Amino acid sequence: MEINVYSKCLKMDKFDRIVEHFHETIIDTNRDHKFFVNWEKIQENVQELKIELNILNSLIASKNFKNDLRQILSRYPDVVPCLPILIAVREMSLKVIDDFSSKDSEIVEYNFKKRKLSSEEIDEFIAFFHKTGLESFFVNLSSRSIQDYVTGVEVGLDTHARKNRSGEAMELVLKPIIEKIKTNLKIPHMLFQKKLSTLERYHKIGVSTSLRNRKADFIIIKDEKKVINIETNFYSGTGSKPQEIVDSYINRQNELKENGFKFIWITDGYGWKGQKNQIRKGFEKVDYLLNLHFVRKGLLEEILCKI
Fold first, then answer.
1. SS3 107
2. Which class is domain 3-34+162-306?
3. Alpha carbons 146 and 58: distance in angstroms, whole number
4. Which of 75, 101, 186, 301 has the maximum number of C-beta atoms within 10 A of its C-beta?
5. Rounded CA gap, 1 and 22, in Å?
């Protein structure tokens, strides 16, 4: 731990007090208001299918559904790729057991790629609408806009993606902060979510074989002799044990030091509460360990300036 830089920024000169302050300022969540639904992505996805969905609107409350659907599939096969989203899936091919109750039931495969459809393929999609309940939805349930319905489906699928966003939230929270620091300090390059091999390929900076395929959350390049890897994580108390997490980042620093690179670890999360021994170990072994409070206090900028 480089205690001088902590002392300057936090106005604390005792190691134990810094560890205690880190523990005191751990946050319960790293979710902001934009975490819950990615509206821009949803709008983009729906707009991409706008024409096809409007064509399907003609099926709402159809009195002769199968015949109307047949005409659409024959004249506008471009609607086929948007059919999976109607049942809340994104795959462009599906395998489905036709009838569980029959011992001789076969697996039916549906291909939703854009193409001109044969009469047999049209029959298969008409059967798909009937068996999945889409026919009943169009005839009996839907009353206004398929586009509005798909917007709702997209919201549902996006909220399901929160699990992935939880892991990415720390990077997304820190990205604008680090970009601002980069501008303030006139740092030439910042790479986001890139493999360390990028340093060799585009910046002519040597990287050992063991590190080339390792992905970094952030890579700061001040010059060819000053490369800093910033890694982030949010520990909720599930998954790996605290000791395993701390050891993994200690090992990361050691590998980076062999290449002459610096390392900063930014972590937070309620999983660290009550884990003072592991936090202490992190401070003892990792040169720069921060939480989000420390970052907001200006410590990350101070460190990047000093290195």
1. strand
2. alpha beta
3. 10
4. 301
5. 13
